[in-house]
Amino acid sequence: MASAETLACSGLINRLIEAHKLLPMVPPAVRLPDAATGAEPDPARARLLRAGLRLFSQQGFAATTTRELAQAAGVNVAAISYYFGDKAGLYQAVYFEPMGDIDDSIAGFSDPALTLADALRAYYAPFVAPLDDGEDGLLFVKLRLREMVEPTGLWDEKLNAGIRPMHQAMVAVLCRHLGLAEPDDELHRLVVCLSALGVHLHLGRDVIDAVAQQLNQAPHAAARWAEGLLRNGLAMVEQERQRRAATPLAG
């Protein structure tokens, strides 16, 4: 039987899902292909991806049938096997394809030739870009929240394939800029705090709208957020630099 804590957490996540105010937990690097725009060379595959995003995010993996997916996409049920192998293959494609190539994202901010400002600007870019997205952003966060509540194993895969490598890459960037031979726990905490600035734009979207709605409605809101993240990120790193110079940590 599930513990009271687990049930309470599940209830909270389900309320968040119904709130319809959140954007992606880990912002996708690209949107799903749109058959109507010609971005996807195979329109049937594109329709299945979009049907999967909508149905999986609204109903979860287990409750969504292949028949529903095929009907929503306007294709034969056999098309799911043809393009993705099975329903699990379609779910995996919907979950991971919009993230793009994680190696490209890491390369964008980890180049040793970049200044700290340029590295942080590139690091925050994927967090800011989805602020201009519409329905896709909402559906992606719902899908990720459902994966946490009704796990299929993809969340652990995402941690290993995306979140952990990005964290380690930023740790290496800050080691270089702070002149550290090895990272310590305080440096890991700093990277978590830097990431939290970007994550809150999405997980805290309803809070931001409640306390200062104009921030997300102002002209060029995404660009203003990008500059704010950069400015505050630089200040956090500088404070850590000064703290280490005044009181060096042992390990």
Short descriptors:
251 residues, mainly alpha
List the helices and strands and how they pair.
Elements: H1 4-19, H2 43-59, H3 66-73, H4 78-84, H5 87-96, H6 102-110, H7 116-128, H8 135-149, H9 154-178, H10 185-203, H11 205-212, H12 214-217, H13 221-246
Helix pairs in contact: 1-8, 2-3, 2-5, 2-8, 4-5, 6-7, 6-9, 7-13, 9-10, 10-13
Tell me what you see in this structure.
The chain is an all-alpha fold and 251 residues long. It has a single domain, classed as Tetracycline Repressor, domain 2 (Orthogonal Bundle). It is built from 13 helices and no strands. Helix 2 crosses helix 8 (135-149). It is elongated and about 65 Å long.
In short:
With 251 residues, this protein is mainly alpha-helical. It has helices at residues 4-19, 43-59, 66-73, 78-84, 87-96, 102-110, 116-128, 135-149, 154-178, 185-203, 205-212, 214-217, 221-246.
**Main sheet, how many strands, which sense, barrel?**
none
- What is the CATH-assigned architecture? Orthogonal Bundle
Low-confidence stretches: 1-10, 12-30
CATH topology: Tetracycline Repressor, domain 2
